[in-house]
User: Which sequence fits this backbone?
């Protein structure tokens, strides 16, 4: 689990976008987490396409056009309610709950701010971009040398909101995402196979590397 910054004094850090390239092995994990989520979304879309049958092209086009997460989930629930048995619906709901938790992991990684610090040479630092903006707002209210100590206290307070991500922290997130994908894959495979059978394909056919059916 990522840890807070434990230094009681201010540390040096840089959250410029290109700085994480100085930690390429760690930075690659951020892209991997995003790619895992893309795989999960592709698998859900493939399942919906199989359920929709002849209406797949229209239905999936509409599904991809939905940008609101709640509306997307409602569309999934509506299609599955019409096409799946009660037991299948219950199992899929359980799996989608796990998938939703992984969506939070993905957002945390993709929408967070990432930086580096010489005090943590084997880690990346994470912060919530919203906290950074609020810090700037607060600092702007304290101009002048007479507020130097107050500004310093605010920066130290902000430092406490950072999290230190080491290699094993990223690996744990990737393991959770891999498990979620596997559960979704195992559930959807027979449904997708049934859809693909008339054209002589299977969901584990080598041709299907994207979206990894």
Assistant:
């Amino acid at each position: 689990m990522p840890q807070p910054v434990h230094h009681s004094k201010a540390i040096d850090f840089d959250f410029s976008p290109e700085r994480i390239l100085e930690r390429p092995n760690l930075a690659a994990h951020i892209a991997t987490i995003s790619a895992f989520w893309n795989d999960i979304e592709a698998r859900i879309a493939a399942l919906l396409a199989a359920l929709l049958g002849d209406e797949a092209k229209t239905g999936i086009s509409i599904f991809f056009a939905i940008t609101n997460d709640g509306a997307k989930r409602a569309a999934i629930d509506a299609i599955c309610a019409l096409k799946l048995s009660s037991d299948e619906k219950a199992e899929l709901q359980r799996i989608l709950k796990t998938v939703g938790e992984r969506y939070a992991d993905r957002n945390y990684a993709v929408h967070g701010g990432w930086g580096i610090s010489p005090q943590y040479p084997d880690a990346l630092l994470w912060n919530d971009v919203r906290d950074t903006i609020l810090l700037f707002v607060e600092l702007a209210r304290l101009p002048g040398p007479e507020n130097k100590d107050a500004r310093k206290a605010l920066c130290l307070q902000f430092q406490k909101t950072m999290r230190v991500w080491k290699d094993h922290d990223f690996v744990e997130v990737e393991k959770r995402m891999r498990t979620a994908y596997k559960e979704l894959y195992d559930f959807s495979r027979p449904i997708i196979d049934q859809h693909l059978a008339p054209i002589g394909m299977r969901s584990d056919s080598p041709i299907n590397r994207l979206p990894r059916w």
Remarks:
- Helices lie at 24-52, 56-65, 69-83, 86-111, 129-140, 148-159, 167-196.
- The chain has one domain: 3-199.
- Residues 135 and 155 are 8 Å apart (CA to CA).
- DSSP finds seven helices and four strands in the chain.
